[in-house]
Design goal:
heterodimer, A: Rossmann fold, Ubiquitin-like (UB roll), de novo design (two linked rop proteins), 3 domains, 20 helices, about 10% strand, B: Arc Repressor Mutant, subunit A, Glutaredoxin, five-stranded mixed sheet, 8 helices, 7 strands, globular, binds flavin mononucleotide, binds iron/sulfur cluster, binds FE2/S2 (inorganic) cluster
Chain lengths: ~425, ~210
């Protein structure tokens, strides 16, 4: 089954040069940015609101609505979030490497809509190659007069700065991102203000949007709101990128319409499990998302609503597939270890809780778990996110702490017997995770 | 008086000009400082403080927050192997052991000659090409234990001035997250990201 391509069309049709400004221009590029100069802020915000575009960075918040919150003080700033560090996620990397101008055209449109004259693209430090590609695209676009003084011959000035991070996942959280860009430690800010659109970079109104969100904007203006909505499924408009990894035959990034089922994603798009092994579970939306299992979830449509009702989220679009040789304790340990390592340390429940969870999982996996450890996992989790509800209740400054609870509830609700077997047998029942050829 | 070379000083000026407030240049300037000394020295951090107008203690506080600012001497080649979830599922722990064994360098350490540092990393955004590895932040996808050993032997023997991602992928890599399609013509000469505006990229690596 093949699905319509929008964001990945140019790179698919023209693999050798989809990153160049010549190819971008030859395939209609920058016409929408130019057109946006003749539109008012209200017009642009209304179009994006009507398109139903939801942010692709993980929180799935309406982009148009976010823009409408922009406070009146000026200067306003735009910060594009290219920190992409949620384990399993590698879609923004492909957008930056293979079609940087598409993203940059989105930057110009967003800047015009929000009266921004200086935009920043914050790229994770471990992405020097995507950053180099983007910087070359920026240089090309400056040379054409698409950035700089009087863009496209108008009287609108717009600069863009590419900024490299320093290797800290938490800087993907938008207020931490802003602190980092200010040259501070990348610690999330206390809320309120809830939105950087009120007070953000240098305490001025700031729009923070994800790379993929930016890439959608030229297409919304080009094809119009109705055509864009028709690409999607109900409230989930447009296409979305999913990063598929783990135990699948065809890992990779796929541009898909919402509304296909997990079965289609894993078995058709992903080509099934290597060696025809059994599917045991999968992470439906990045490391922060509670896990799904075949009995309950395989035929659910992939939409924000259906995924949320089933107790998880589409998050960053990362899907990690695990076969029946995977030890749930080890898998959970890896995900929890990530959050423990990346906790910024400001909030006690997150800093202490993630450390404890990691330690307990380690000893269970090593066969040194105690009978009370299963309850202890849930108890520590409850201290991080009271009630272990979905969406999680937050006692911390940012959602990172509660994210660390997702793997715990996932394994304790569905695979408790396997966790207990580690403890009663004093060893991991899976000697080693099998490595597919 | 700056302790930096003329060319680094002019880089620093160019970088400062890209931000509305000086302090925002702290992170890029820390990379400049690393490129000057090979790692992030106290003197380097003090110099950055001068440039952006904050105290050395403030700069140290910022630098210590991020994993990529290496405040200890680091080998010429920093080998970072991802052991996060997707890579773990595809056998990253075995690749890590092979690399540690072949190099004689455990996680977080550097060999005696200062050639190779080894670390296990959290997800580096190449999960579709698990097991993923970076050398000086240049990517190799689809690494196996055997190829990991070959990589270490090659680094020790060939000692390239700078590493190039396409060359390493060709020699040691396997399945990729996606078609890279376009070759990279720059190299990375030290344990910091190779990015032209920071003057940390080596031209014409091959
Ligand atoms: C711990 C944490 C990490 C995050 N990491 C990222 C990230 O790497 N990239 C991203 O775009 N958004 C990330 N987000 C979401 C951002 O805070 C923000 O919602 C998003 O960038 C807004 O852009 P969007 O509306 O276009 O999605 C993260 C959030 C949290 C709480
Ligand atoms: S929840 Fe964790 S990562 Fe977020 S601000 Fe608190 S300590 Fe930092
Ligand atoms: S999990 Fe290894 S690169 Fe993402």
């Amino acid at each position: 089954m093949s699905y319509p391509k929008v964001l990945t069309k140019r790179m698919e049709d023209h693999p050798a040069d989809s990153h160049t400004i010549e190819r971008y221009a030859a395939t209609g590029g920058y016409a929408q940015a130019k057109a946006a100069l003749d539109m008012t802020r209200d017009e642009l915000v209304d179009i994006v609101k009507a398109s139903g575009l939801l942010g692709r960075g993980g929180a799935a918040f309406s982009t148009g609505l976010k823009w409408s919150f922009l406070a009146p003080a000026r200067p306003a700033y735009l910060v594009v979030n290219g920190d992409e560090s949620e384990p399993g996620t590698f879609k923004d990397r492909q957008l930056l490497e293979r079609d940087p101008h598409q993203m940059l055209e989105g930057v110009i449109i967003t800047a015009i809509a929000n009266e921004v004259h200086h935009a920043f693209v914050y790229i994770r430090g471990e992405y020097p190659k995507p950053a180099r590609r983007l910087q070359r695209a920026v240089d090309e676009a400056y040379a054409e007069g698409y950035f700089g003084k009087g863009i496209f011959g108008s009287d609108y000035d717009l600069d863009v700065t590419v900024h490299l991070g320093g290797g800290a996942y938490i800087c993907g959280e938008e207020t931490a991102l802003i602190n980092s860009l200010e040259g501070q430690r990348g610690e999330p800010r206390l809320k309120p203000p809830y939105f950087p659109a009120a007070k953000g970079l240098y305490m001025m109104p700031t729009i923070v949007n994800n790379v993929e969100t930016m890439a959608n904007l030229p297409h919304i203006l080009d094809m119009g709101v109705e055509a864009y909505k028709a690409l999607g499924h109900g409230d989930d408009t447009g296409t979305f990128l999913t990063s598929l990894s783990g135990h699948v035959n065809n890992p990779g990034n796929y541009e898909l319409p919402h509304g296909i089922t997990w079965r289609e994603l894993i078995y058709e798009v992903g080509g099934g499990i290597p060696g025809d092994r059994e599917l045991k579970m999968w992470i439906p939306g990045g490391a922060s998302a509670p896990w799904f299992n075949p009995e309950d979830h395989l035929d659910l449509p992939i939409t924000k609503g259906d995924t949320g009702q089933a107790g998880s989220m589409l998050g960053s679009g990362a899907v990690v597939v695990m076969n029946d040789t995977t030890c749930v304790v080890k898998a959970a340990e890896r995900v929890v270890r990530f959050f423990s390592h990346e906790s910024c340390g400001q909030c006690t429940p997150c800093r202490e809780g993630t450390t404890w969870l990691e330690m307990i999982l380690r000893r269970i996996e090593a066969g040194q778990g105690r009978p009370i450890d299963a309850d202890l996992l849930l108890d520590v989790s409850d201290n991080i996110s009271v009630g272990l509800a979905w969406p999680p209740r937050q006692t911390t400054i940012c959602p990172l702490g509660p994210s660390a609870v997702s793997p715990i509830t996932s394994i304790m609700r569905h695979f408790k017997d396997e966790v207990m077997a580690h403890i009663t047998e004093g060893a991991c029942p899976f000697a080693k995770t099998e490595v597919p050829a | 008086m700056s302790i930096w070379s003329e060319s680094t000083q002019s880089r620093a000026k160019e970088i400062l000009a890209k931000y509305p407030e000086k302090r925002s240049a702290v992170m890029p300037l820390l990379y400049l400082a690393m490129a000057e000394d090979g790692w992030l020295t106290i003197e380097g951090m003090t110099e950055v403080a001068e440039w952006v107008g904050i105290t050395p203690a403030q700069v140290q506080s910022v630098a210590s927050f991020y994993t990529m600012y290496k405040r200890e001497p680091t080998g010429k080649y920093l080998v970072s192997l991802c052991t996060s979830i997707s890579c773990m599922l595809l056998g990253s722990d075995d690749v890590l052991h092979a690399i540690e064994d072949e190099s004689g360098v455990p996680h977080g350490e550097t060999d005696d000659e200062g050639v190779i540092s080894v670390e296990h990393a959290e997800c580096i955004g190449a999960c579709g090409g698990a097991v993923a590895c970076q050398v000086n932040y240049e990517l190799i996808e689809g690494l196996t234990p055997e190829k990991g050993r070959e990589l270490v032997r090659w680094l020790k023997k060939a000692r390239p001035d700078a590493v190039n991602t396409d060359e390493m992928q060709e020699l040691f890599g396997g399945r990729r997250s996606f078609d890279w399609a376009i070759q990279s013509d720059v190299g990375a000469a030290g344990p910091y990201p190779a990015f032209e505006p920071y003057g940390t990229a080596t031209e014409d690596a091959k």
